[in-house]
Amino acid sequence: MKTRLSLLAAGLLLATGAQASVPGDKLAKGLDAGSYGSFVKTLSSDEFQGRLPATIGETKTLAFLQAQFMRLGLKPGFGDSYLQPVPLVAITSHPGQLTLGNLKLDYLKDMVINSPKAVAETTVKDADLVFVGYGIHAPELGWDDYQGLDVKGKVVVMLVNDPGYATGDKRFDGRAMTYYGRWDYKFDEAARQGAAGALIIHQTEPASYPWSVVENSWGGTRYDLADDNGPKSAFSGWITEDAAKRLFAQAGLDFAATTKAAGKAPMAKPLNAKASVDIKSDFKTTESHNVMGVLPGQTEETVVITAHWDHLGTDPSHKDDPVYNGAMDNATGTAGLISLAQSFEDLYKGAEKPRRSIAFLAVTAEEQGLLGSKYYVSNPSIPLGRTVADINMDSLNVYGPTKDMVVVGKGKTSLEKELSEALRKQGRTLVPNDRPEAGGYYRSDHFNFAKAGIPALFAGGGSQPWDADVAKYREMMKARLKGCYHNACDEYQADWDLRGALSDLQAFHDMIQMLITSRDWPSWQSGAEFSRPAATE
Prior knowledge:
Blueprint: H1 7-16, H2 33-43, H3 56-71, E1 75-76, E2 83-95, E3 98-100, E4 103-105, E5 111-114, E6 121-131, E7 137-138, E8 143-144, E9 155-159, H4 163-167, H5 183-192, E10 197-201, H6 204-207, H7 211-218, E11 221-225, E12 235-239, H8 241-250, H9 255-262, E13 269-295, E14 302-308, E15 313-314, E16 323-324, H10 327-347, E17 357-363, H11 371-378, E18 387-392, E19 404-407, H12 415-424, E20 429-432, H13 446-451, E21 456-458, H14 468-481, H15 499-516
Parallel strand pairs: 6-9, 9-10, 10-12, 14-17, 14-18, 18-21, 19-20
Antiparallel strand pairs: 1-13, 2-11, 2-13, 3-4, 3-13, 5-12, 6-13, 7-8, 13-17, 15-16
């Protein structure tokens, strides 16, 4: 920038709703700090009660999103409706003590467990405990922690992440987490193997988040798709590292040495103890909704833009601040969805339609395991064969403009070509995320599109502040928001410098414009674990 905005000036700029500048380029009409900030503020207000699916918070969120899509003249995405019903089952588990041998583990303090089944009572008594390393069955990589092991009716204990994190094993993409490192894969695989229970050992660094995130994300009500008939263990959950160390010591095993060895070769070791627990559960079948508006093009070929609208709801036990507002996660992304729709509605108002359509899809229950996007991909209103790409927005940049933009899972798709070109106009560059071990590519809604073969991009934010003033602001704001992920302090901040989010939205805008006016189909890069369905070649 030719002149630097002081933090005070930036705050005044945002407060007055004036259009903020972005690195190297003007913002498209419809992308402005005033409207974008108001969308974030509204969605993350206490009135929306943390946007938990199937609550009054959802009702208010749906009404707001539909009103915005109608205002912009978007076509309903599901026949004559903007809403796609997503059948869910809500399960609230009330576990008693979890007993592992002589250890009695307390809920939230030492462990968090749930029943994934809609049953009133789950009882596991005197089940053998087995440590299964990283809990991975990947014969195509020459790795199988379950090889020659019968865990039917047993309780398996495993490490978070994958062997690449511990050893740099190239089969697992080195330090970058693969899908085999994700908790949902591990629980699903344990169930496929017939385990009665599955426990992941929480460790902050390989998990990429502290124990408080496990407490807040896994305590209370959990959701699943009501029509998911896949295998499920009787219970699944997490134990603290301290509890795991005590468990290993009880079995006569050195925790550090055993877990280190588990990163070098597949492992299965009996823990010479029995597991017992009784879980009482309340459950009900309920319904949530995905929301989609479409800007029609000349063809049915469609670029899908996604953001999850849901968050964690409320916790009445937190008397001072019971609402998990989810401002950054993900009111920022949902607001970005509306702002992009606003900008394209303006761009094509009274003009010839673009060659391709754009679908703006706000999905539910991301925080429960990407359920809304999973349901949509299994029940798409736009055939997957006509879906050009997915661009996903989750937790946009509130730390000020940057010289770079991070793409999570860099090198997976050709979509990076269009994004790099859009960034070049801003004087910015595209860079990989600096913490690939966190497994970000497998943690948001684009992943369900990727599993179906649709090239999917997840990008946003950056690590290089645009100037010295931004660097100071960034340091201050990061300190203020430290520990707010999945906590009640993830609230809208009146002094947020939204120019970072807006510059990213401008880059997405330019990228989408390239895609909807092109005849080319994005593709997966060589080495990516996904491939586009043959019907769209």
